[in-house]
From TrEMBL:
<dbReference type="GO" id="GO:0005829">
    <property type="term" value="C:cytosol"/>
</dbReference>
<dbReference type="Pfam" id="PF02115">
    <property type="entry name" value="Rho_GDI"/>
</dbReference>
<keyword id="KW-0963">Cytoplasm</keyword>
<dbReference type="GO" id="GO:0007266">
    <property type="term" value="P:Rho protein signal transduction"/>
</dbReference>
<dbReference type="GO" id="GO:0005094">
    <property type="term" value="F:Rho GDP-dissociation inhibitor activity"/>
</dbReference>
<dbReference type="InterPro" id="IPR000406">
    <property type="entry name" value="Rho_GDI"/>
</dbReference>
<dbReference type="InterPro" id="IPR014756">
    <property type="entry name" value="Ig_E-set"/>
</dbReference>
<protein>
    <submittedName>
        <fullName>Rho GDP-dissociation inhibitor 1</fullName>
    </submittedName>
</protein>
<dbReference type="InterPro" id="IPR024792">
    <property type="entry name" value="RhoGDI_dom_sf"/>
</dbReference>
<comment type="similarity">
    <text>Belongs to the Rho GDI family.</text>
</comment>
<dbReference type="GO" id="GO:0016020">
    <property type="term" value="C:membrane"/>
</dbReference>
Length: 245
């Protein structure tokens, strides 16, 4: 996750307290000036969060116009006399399961599993399905630890275009991260798909520890949401003695 905003704010706050403890003397005018500058920096930071929130809202409102939906069988029947086009479609669809397609137009995506991978640690398996608003912390991560997200999903009925994963994180009602991962376009098949995100690192330090709230969504280019989870998680100094299963 991109935690740079919170790290910067924590660094400024830590520096302020260190100067107070060291007993550094400042003139009243200089001290007031520093406070005003710090307030300005905080205002700029908050504006950045607001702009990011607006960007997210704009992205949510922009749905690609992909034209009318056509069933997978109809797509294969079109231009079937064109050999090159037929081969291209077969290559695109790969191992598509036509037996479970029928004439349904809407693709169906089911998120089958979610897990967190961290080198040297047992995988943290997050149960699916989950309550709409799980009570308590869903999982705990160690500060400064590297991790990846892994999820498997199935696709049926039709091709899903532009499947994406978005995750938004808040701490004390302030948004500290918003990440989006484009998974791609997938055709129906019997075997589930598996996707592993690039490696990321949790923030570290006393100001990074604590509880966070988050929202995870899986959507496609049509704006259809296949899974939305609201949950909380913790970042602690050490890993928990027993990982949740």
């Amino acid at each position: 996750m991109a935690w740079e905003e919170e790290k910067d704010a924590a660094g400024r706050l830590r520096e302020y307290f260190e100067k107070e403890v060291d007993g550094q003397e400042k003139k009243v005018g200089d001290h007031c000036g520093d406070e005003v500058e710090e307030v300005r920096e905080k205002e700029v930071s908050l504006c950045a969060y607001e702009e990011e929130e607006k960007d997210g809202e704009e992205d949510a409102g922009k749905v690609l116009d992909l034209g009318p939906l056509v069933s997978l069988i109809d797509q294969m029947e079109k231009d079937k006399d064109d050999e090159s086009l037929r081969r291209w479609k077969e290559q695109l669809l790969g191992t598509a399961d036509f037996n479970s397609v029928g004439d349904k137009l809407e693709p169906d995506v089911k998120i089958l599993s979610l897990s967190i991978l961290s080198l040297g640690r047992p995988d943290i398996i997050l149960p699916i399905p989950v309550a709409l608003n799980p009570k308590g912390s869903w999982f705990t991560l160690k500060e400064g630890s590297s991790y990846r997200l892994k999820f498997s999903f199935s696709v049926s009925n039709n091709i899903v275009s532009g499947l994406k994963y978005t995750n938004t994180v808040w701490k004390t009602s302030i948004k500290v991260d918003r990440s989006k991962e484009m998974l791609g376009t997938f055709s129906p098949q019997l075997e589930p798909y598996t996707y592993v995100t690039p490696e990321e690192t949790t923030p570290s330090g006393i100001f990074a520890r604590g509880s966070y709230s988050a929202r995870t969504k899986f959507t496609d280019d049509d704006g259809k949401c296949y899974l939305e989870i609201n949950y909380t998680f913790d970042i602690r100094k050490n890993w928990p003695s027993a990982s949740p299963v």
